[in-house]
Structure formats: C-alpha cells, structure tokens
Amino acid sequence: MSASTEPLRVAVLLSGRGSNLLALIKASQRDLPIALVGAFSNKADAPGLGLAAAAGIPTQVFEPRLYPDRAEFEQALFAAVAASGAELLVLAGFMRVLGAASVEQWRGRLINIHPSLLPKYQGLHTHERAIQAGDSEHGASVHFVTPVLDGGPVLMQVRVPIEPGDTADSLAARLLPEEHRLLVAAVRLFAQRRVRLDDGRIFVDGVELVEPLRFL
Ligand code: GRF
Predict the structure, then answer these.
(1) Which of 93, 91, 68 is nearest to 78 (CA)?
(2) Whose CA is closest to atom 5 on ligand 1?
(3) Residue 3 domain-assigned?
(4) What separation in Å is there between the alpha carbon of 162 and the centre of ligand 1?
(5) Count of domains in the chain?
(6) Which residue owns the Cα nearest ligand 1 atom 2?
(7) This model's pTM is above 0.85
C-alpha cells in the first residue's frame, strides 16, 4: 500500500458541543479514510470531549489560565497536537483566536469551519447578522486558517436559504446539518490528498481554485 492511501491523521480543536467532531467520527466509521488521532480543547467541560472519548479518541485539555501567557499556552497545545502525529488540524468550534506563530507552523494543514459565506460575517453572531442584513441566503465555509481571523482562503462552501420569519436559532438549526456534510466533504478532499495551499492559493487536483468549491 502506498503512503497516499493511508488514512489521513486528523486532530480536532474544539471548545464546546462537538457536533462537527461527531460528524467526522461518524463519517470515519463509514467511509471517510481518516484516523482521528486527538481532540484538544481549551475548555475542560466541553461536551465534545465526551463524544471523542466515547469514540476512543485521545483527548487533552489545555486551559489558558494555567499558562503565564498566550504564547506559552499555544506552545503547549501545539506541541501536543504535533505529538499526536496529526497531518491535518481541524478547528471545529474552537473559540479562541490563535497567534500567528502557531498558525504559521500549520500553514496549509490547518482548516476551520465557519458559519457564514465568507468573506461575509467574519467573527461571531453570523446567523443574526445575515438575517439583519436582509440576506436571502446564508451558509458555511471551510477555509484555511491564516493569522487573519476567519480571513484565510476558502476551500468549500454550502448555502441554505433564509426563510421569512427566521430567527438566529432557526437559521442555525437549518445550517448545522449542512455544515456537517460540508466539513466531511472538505476533509475527504484532504484525505484523498487532492488539496494543496501554495503561497495563499488553493489547488485542487493541481488546478487553482478561482472561487470556493460549492457543496450541494
Ligand atoms: C459551528 O457552528 C461551527 O461552524 C462554528 O462553531 C460551531 C461549533 O459547533 N465554528 P460544534 O461544537 O461543532 O457543535
């Protein structure tokens, strides 16, 4: 078996619920060729850690308050991630901004799922902001992480309609299952070794993306 057919070793960083991690767990139990090698959190009580543990995935918690500063916290966290042997690191509801030094180490191997059609609505409260803006559609994006928050090159997006009367909660509930499918599809491209980031440009199957792939 050649190296390229080995399951891709994937680690996940999360801070909360962990439904995106669960989507990866379930997909890996079906046909997604990944090995989840670690789930890492900045929150000891993140429910996602329980999901990981139940699936036999090693978990580790790094609480920022236990470190003298952000740099030392991130050094400890990223040393553990590296020790897990991860080839791809997925931010799935990781609610901390990472410093440039950490991000640079993982350039091209670090992705985030964000609940908006980037570049729209970087940051928080994306559902509410899309509704307030009067948008007719909303969505989620999987993007490479760069030192700019929610600002890295976007690999793939999924769209959902905004319906009359939608609230942030109803819109979030419509989007979440699509986010899960999107993340699995994006990680599958990595597992198939089809994606490359080169000088800020994304290549899929050797062809430069001129706009994000659209997941239907
Ligand atoms: C998701 O909406 C994701 O897009 C955002 O944070 C949320 C995490 O949800 N970055 P979960 O913890 O994966 O359930």
Answers:
(1) 91
(2) 93
(3) no
(4) 19
(5) 1
(6) 115
(7) yes
